[in-house]
Every structure is written in C-alpha cells, then in structure tokens.
C-alpha cells in the first residue's frame, strides 16, 4: 500500500469541476421552472461527475501515477467504457433520490400551495391608489402563478369580504374567474381594520384547509390600525403561516411599525412601496419566495431557517461526494482507489454542503460564486486522498506478458477468479 499523488489529476479535476459547474448553471437557468427539480438536480450532479471523471481519466492517461503504466497499456479502453455509467448515470440516480428526500415536507414545514391576497379597500386608497393599481397587480400575479396553487382574494375596510374563495388555478377558466372577481370589487370606502381582516382570513384558511400543504398571506394596506397582535397572530404562528406585508405610501410610522411587526412575528417579509405602480413587482417578489428548495439553490419560505433542512442538505452533499469518489474508483476499476476516493468524497461533500448551506443567500451573483466554490471543492478534494489514504497499484504483471494481458490485478473490482489472495472491500 502506498500514498500516491498526481498533481495533474488534481488540476484536471479542478478544470472538470469548472466545466461541470458551467453546464450546471445553464441547466438551472434554461430548465428551471420548465422541468421538475428532481431531473434538473439529477442532471446537475450527473454532468458534474461526468466532467470530473473525464478530466481525471485524461490526466491518468497522460501521467498514470495512481494506477501505474500497466493500466494505461492494457485497461484504458475499459475505463472509457465505464466512464458514463460510473459517473453520469450513478450520480444522476443518487442525486435525484436525494433531491426527492430534500423536497419532502419535514420538520413541521409544509410546501406552500395556498395564497391568500388581502387588500385594503378603505377610503384612503382613493388618494394613495386612485388608479386601483393594487388590483391590477393582484391580477398579474394570478396570471403568473403555477397551476398547482390555490388563491383567495379578500378585501377589507371597516369589515372584511371574501371576494374569491380559494380556487385552484388549474386552467385558463379558473384564472379568468378570479380576475373577474377582482374587477367586481366595489369602490373604496370606510376605515382600516387590519385585525379583523387577518381574523377573517384565518377563518377562511381553516374552513378551506387541505391537509399536507401550507398557506401564505400577502397583506396590503396604507393605513394605521389597532391590532392585538398576540391574539390575532397566535394561530398564524402555530400553523407556520407567513404573512407578507406591503405598506403603500405610509406617512405615519406607526402603520409601518405595525406591518413590520406582523411580518416579523409570522416569518413573512415587509415591503414599503411609495408608488402603487410598483406593486406588481413587489407581489411577484413575494411569490418568488414561496418556499421552493433544491440542493443547490437558496431555501426560502417557512423552511428557510429550518435546522432539519440544513442537516438534510449537508448530509445529501456528503452522500453525493461519497458516490462521486466511488464512481471514480469504478471508472478506473480499482477497489483501493474507490475506497480512498470514497473517503475523500465524504470530506469534500461535507465541505461542499457547508458552503452551500452557509453561502446561498438569494443574491444571483453571490449564489453563482457559492455554487462554483462548492463544485470545485467537491471535485478537487477527492483527488488528494490517494495521498492521505494509501492505495495499491492494482494493474501488475503476473508472470508472463500473455498471462498478464488476460488477467486483472489484485485491486480490480473483478479480481482473478483463481486468486484467493485478492483483497478489497
């Protein structure tokens, strides 16, 4: 058993990691929202593994430090045949399964499928939103929602009215019906009772609840209201329902403070908008943080700060690292190298998982850099472990050249049927 190090292999692995990262970013940009996340993440890590494997294979062909010159002379063709099954296919299957686990609702968190839009229709809106841009923003949001979402529209002033009960936006007719309901909202009048609006909204959520899925609220107001936050928000907090608040043209700081407190206590976001024409953009921003999650993107919504999902992501990357290390060993048909790279993969996967978990922030350029760092670490650290964990050169001549050409060495996964001294896993 020897400690071995191939600097060229490490350098080529880095290059392969960068190439795989670039292709992965294209997959995220072009297929995100069009293909299921399971397939995208499976391809992301499958392509990364293929790129790293191809780079490592080329490096060992040029400078066979880990497997020995006999491997290059006799068995390189077998490594080319094993390249895609051992890297692309294996990592695709493993990462797809782990992404499936990551998307399962756990730790008390439910995926948001129901969205209640609660809109202020008090008399002051005649001055702050004379063109009714808030209703146009709501209709645009309905148009952009996914077909598996349900939406409800509630307006409030002194009282609260359910304009549109929860309905699934499964087809054009459903969306048209919701927009027609919004168009039928009467002229603004009366005062501002945010507490009543939230209470009635919760009643409707409870009445229309469907088990296993979460709810989010978007609350828009321009005024000040007296609200007993403890009692009004108690059920929102116990059911993990985020209330995202939007303040329109607030001139009284107490109104802003109230909306911020509602958002903060329920895990929602707060936005202050001075121009009603910008509401469509703000609504869309809120919708984009519904709680979608993948192993390589920021986790948003109720699961954003979940320790459960932090652990699952890090564990998933650790397993992906181990799978990548074993895949490289399979590609070279070397059980000792697979063991060494597998251990290295556990370390590199753990590091990559921590980088993603601590570094992803939702800022586009920062997240791209975070994924690049994680991919490079995942690719390169593995190759260092042939020096840390001793390996055996497994392609060795055993007697004569004819006999050696017919049999694999002791470190091969296949082994020699008549050699009871073969060692490995």
Main-sheet strand order equals: 3-2-1-4-5-6
Helical percentage: 55-70%
Overall shape: it is elongated
User: Unreliable stretches, pLDDT < 50, 5 or more residues?
Assistant: 395-410, 416-425
Q: Describe the oligomeric state of these chains in a short phrase.
A: single chain
- What structural class should be given to the helix and strand makeup? alpha/beta
State the separation between the terminal residues, measured CA to CA: 14 Å
Determine Rg (CA atoms, Å): 29 Å
List keywords for this structure.
alpha/beta, 425 residues, six-stranded mixed beta sheet, disordered C terminus
Explain what this protein looks like in three dimensions:
The chain has 16 helices and six strands. The chain has helices spanning 7-31, 37-62, 69-74, 76-103, 125-128, 133-144, 172-183, 194-207, 229-238, 253-266, 279-287, 307-331, 335-359, 364-383, 385-388, 401-406, and strands spanning 112-120, 150-156, 160-168, 214-221, 242-248, 270-273. The relative contact order is 0.14. The chain has 425 residues and is an alpha/beta fold.
Question: What's the short version?
Answer:
The chain is α/β, with parallel strands linked by helices and 425 residues long. It has helices spanning 7-31, 37-62, 69-74, 76-103, 125-128, 133-144, 172-183, 194-207, 229-238, 253-266, 279-287, 307-331, 335-359, 364-383, 385-388, 401-406; strands spanning 112-120, 150-156, 160-168, 214-221, 242-248, 270-273.
């Amino acid at each position: 058993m020897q400690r071995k190090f191939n600097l060229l292999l490490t350098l080529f692995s880095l290059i392969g990691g960068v190439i795989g990262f670039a292709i992965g970013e294209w997959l995220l940009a072009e297929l995100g929202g069009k293909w299921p996340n399971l397939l995208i993440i499976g391809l992301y890590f499958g392509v990364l593994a293929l790129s790293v494997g191809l780079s490592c294979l080329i490096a060992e062909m040029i400078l066979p430090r880990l497997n020995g010159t006999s491997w290059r002379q006799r068995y390189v063709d077998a490594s080319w045949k094993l390249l895609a099954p051992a890297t692309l296919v294996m990592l695709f299957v493993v990462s797809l399964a782990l992404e499936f686990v990551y998307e399962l609702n756990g730790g008390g968190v439910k995926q948001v499928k129901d969205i209640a839009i609660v809109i202020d229709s008090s008399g002051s809106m005649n001055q702050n939103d004379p063109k009714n841009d808030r209703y146009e923003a709501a209709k645009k949001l309905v148009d952009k929602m996914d077909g598996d979402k349900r939406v409800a529209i509630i307006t409030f002033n002194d009282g609260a009215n359910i304009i549109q009960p929860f309905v699934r936006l499964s087809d054009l007719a459903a969306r048209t019906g919701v927009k027609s309901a919004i168009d039928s909202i009467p002229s603004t009048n009366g005062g501002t009772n945010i507490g009543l609006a939230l209470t009635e909204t919760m009643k409707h959520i409870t009445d229309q609840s469907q088990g296993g899925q979460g709810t989010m609220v978007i609350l828009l107001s321009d005024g000040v209201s007296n609200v007993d936050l403890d009692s009004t928000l108690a059920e929102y907090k116990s059911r993990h329902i985020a209330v995202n608040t939007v303040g329109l043209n607030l001139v009284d700081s107490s109104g802003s403070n109230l909306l911020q407190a509602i958002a903060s206590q329920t895990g929602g976001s707060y936005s202050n908008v001075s121009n009603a024409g910008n509401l469509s953009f703000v609504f869309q921003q809120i919708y984009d943080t519904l709680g979608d999650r993948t192993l390589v993107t920021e986790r948003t919504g109720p699961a954003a700060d979940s320790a459960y999902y932090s652990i699952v992501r890090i564990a998933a990357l650790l397993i992906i690292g181990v799978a990548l290390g074993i895949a490289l060993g399979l590609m070279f048909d070397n059980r000792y190298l697979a063991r060494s790279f597998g251990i290295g993969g556990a370390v590199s996967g753990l590091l990559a998982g921590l980088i993603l978990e601590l570094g992803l922030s939702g800022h586009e350029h920062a997240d791209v850099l975070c994924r690049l760092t994680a991919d490079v670490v995942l690719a390169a650290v593995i190759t260092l472990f042939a020096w840390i964990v001793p390996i055996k050169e497994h392609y060795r001549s055993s007697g004569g050249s004819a006999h050696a050409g017919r049999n694999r060495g002791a470190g091969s996964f296949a082994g020699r049927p008549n050699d009871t001294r073969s060692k490995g896993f």
